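thread from #wetlab-drylab

HS: before we spend reagent money on co-crystallization trials with manganese (II) ion, can we at least see a predicted complex? here's what I'd submit
DV: go for it
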Amino acid sequence: MIKRFLIIGDNHLDSKTPLSRLDNYMETCLQELLETLQIAKANKVDYYILLGDIFNRISVGGECRNRALEILSSDNGEPWPFEKYLVVGNHDIAHDPDLMEKADAQSLVSAGCVKFVDTIEGLPVRFWHFTPKLDRNLKEGVMKDFDEKIMFMHASITDRPFAFDTVLFDELTVHPNTKLIFSGHIHKKMEAEKDGVKFINPGSVGRNRISDDYSKTKVSVIGLQYDFSNDEYKTKVFELKSSLPYDVIFDVDASKAKKSENKNTQKFLEAITSGSVADKISGNIADDLILFAENRNILKEVTDMAVMAINIIQSGGEL
Ligand SMILES: [Mn+2]
């Protein structure tokens, strides 16, 4: 039994254009969504899999939601000739699976244009939707108990250690039947193989913030042809033509200027917090900051904000 899949990483559709984007974010994202469906059709896939974070927020506004719904529902009135499945991502549900019923992602499910399930009858594949415990469960070896051959998930699996906590693919224990793991969530293309198990993150389709990761690669989705009788498979990368180049959609120069501005702010903060006012300091950081800022004619609003930030941090964010 040979089946074809198209696997699509985090779309992050939104009606709001992120500050760093120069184009109309929603229009570009919807165009990209449509193109992925056209690729699926042209390549005669059986299953179209969204790997999570189809939406950037739990509710992205009626226009964006409805247009996504129309695009996913039909090809100019003709039903798309494949099954569509949704892995739920953290952004789709504001990190809380109990909020799914309120989510725009649920609208797609309720309208019948994507399926939200854990398994497909008669096909050894499984969907792992985001939950706050998913990463921990994966680290604790939960996959050992599930014998499907292909896993689709929204989890922090990475091929190498990152600056933040992730689930290292090398340390993942899976069932002997499992051959392939596709995961979205980390917006970075990754591919790794160990003991006959392959991990692929196709990278995100949505580019919702300026990031070097996006500048180095083209936006793409992954085609998979899998023979379930002998576990032979091949994958193919499809680059999206509708994804505009990085330097067209992002104001790279403005971002650089902003980075240097942040650096200056940091220098300023260092200067005012590490200055030598030994004879006057009270030991109370907020009082000392006010005194120091007054001596240097810093705008009162700036000092007030800094003091408020200090208060929030000192109270453990309870304010
Ligand atoms: Mn995401």
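DV: The chain has two domains: 2-249, 252-314.
HS: ok that's useful, forwarding to the group
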